[in-house]
TrEMBL record:
Domain Phosphatidic acid phosphatase type 2/haloperoxidase: 60-176
Membrane-spanning ranges: 27-49, 56-75, 107-128, 135-153, 159-176
Protein known as: Phosphatase PAP2 family protein
Organism (species): Hyunsoonleella rubra
Superkingdom per UniProt: Bacteria
Record's keyword terms, sorted: Membrane, Transmembrane, Transmembrane helix
Pfam families (alphabetical): PAP2
Keyword Transmembrane part of the UniProt annotation: yes
SMART domains named in the record: acidPPc
Keyword hit for Glycoprotein: no
Amino acid sequence: MIDQLIDYDKELFLYLNNLGSETWDTLWLVITNKLTFIPLYAILLFLLYKKFGAKPLLVFVIVVALMITFTDQITNVFKRGFERPRPCGAEGVKDLARMVAGYCGKYGFFSGHSSNSMAAAVFAGLALRSHYKNLIFILLFWSAIVAYSRIYVGVHYPLDIVCGMTFGAISGFLFYKLSQILLRRFELA
């Protein structure tokens, strides 16, 4: 059953990856670049500051730093633990895929981009939901686009993306809850 799931994953990857064209490659490389969304993060920090003030913002920044560190490190544990070759290194896949990214890496289960962007989306969306009700949906859509970019550029399978997004959503929720506990503990809420 696992082998069949992996085969479906490879087939879906090849289908989705080969939907791309050179016309769109640059756009997807920009989307997949982790530095592209620094302005978005700055806007989210500003909104947190505007709605909660400086001291709660400090709590949010510390918790978000811990969250991103956590998701990055757990992602690396899974990559080393499963040692699933990325599409660019997998026999039967690498010759059929469009490799758009300049660098691929060795192992790819699960996607750090997916887990980090989803964690940030869930965290910020929950933290700001009382002030901006639809923001979480915009952030979830943004996270899904970032996640798909990893398939487009040829470095992750769809299952890597789904697992990364799931882990990110759980992490974002748990770290949001941690931030709420800390804000109450220090009487900043």
